């Protein structure tokens, strides 16, 4: 960018902070915004504002929600005795898209990663243990990612829950080790769910 204004520079700086967006792409996006109709550009600004103001975590399962409970926790048709543990809301989304899981979820909001300084306390594990302690669940499915950290997290949780009268299972290894749930296609996810194994 040769000649520009302060506001344009600011917009480029903001775009450049986004993941996967380099300086050149940020400049392209900024020029795109300058070119489009004002209403289109403001719709983008407004959707960012709305998401930041309205979206929070479900108080029960830590999925994304726009009220106290997420749409899944509010749905009486979901099987209240099945609980699937995932790392992130986007993993939950991937499983939902497989259309194979009728139960409820618990989102950890991360995984135990000692090298990055993420310990069990920074996840929603305490809330999970409290939920399971109610005795409502007959089966708990570990659907953390098949990575070293995802496996370690599943192991930590299964140790915590081992004394409780509930069956613990893990997604079958249809998913290639190291691949991430959100990028796995829904047929493979559906197979992994139906072939889940006892821990
Ligand atoms: Zn929820």
Automatic annotation (TrEMBL):
Toprim domain span: 81-176
Zinc finger (C4-type): 58-73
Organism superkingdom: Bacteria
Gene3D superfamilies the record matches: 3.30.60.80, 3.40.1360.10, RecR Domain 1
NCBIfam families, sorted: recR
Membership in a protein family: Belongs to the RecR family.
Function: May play a role in DNA repair. It seems to be involved in an RecBC-independent recombinational process of DNA repair. It may act with RecF and RecO.
Protein name as catalogued: Recombination protein RecR
Organism: Blastopirellula marina
Phylogenetic lineage: Bacteria, Pseudomonadati, Planctomycetota, Planctomycetia, Pirellulales
Gene name as annotated: recR
């Amino acid at each position: 960018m040769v000649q520009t204004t302060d506001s344009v520079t600011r917009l480029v700086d903001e775009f450049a902070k986004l993941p996967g967006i380099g300086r050149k792409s940020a400049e392209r996006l900024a020029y795109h915004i300058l070119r489009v109709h004002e209403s289109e550009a403001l719709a983008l600004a407004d959707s960012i504002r709305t998401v930041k103001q309205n979206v929070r975590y479900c108080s029960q399962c830590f999925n994304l929600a726009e009220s106290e409970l997420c749409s899944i926790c509010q749905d009486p048709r979901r099987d209240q005795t099945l609980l699937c543990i995932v790392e992130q809301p986007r993993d939950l989304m991937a499983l939902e898209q497989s259309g194979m899981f009728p139960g409820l979820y618990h989102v950890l909001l991360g995984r135990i990663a000692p090298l990055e300084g993420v310990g069990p306390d920074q996840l929603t594990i305490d809330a999970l243990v409290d939920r399971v302690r109610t005795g409502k669940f007959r089966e708990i499915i570990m659907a953390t990612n098949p990575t070293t950290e995802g496996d370690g997290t599943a192991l930590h949780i299964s140790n915590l829950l081992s004394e409780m009268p509930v069956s613990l299972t893990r997604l079958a290894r249809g998913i290639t080790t190291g691949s991430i749930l959100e990028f796995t296609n829904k047929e493979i996810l559906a197979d992994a769910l139906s072939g889940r194994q006892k821990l």
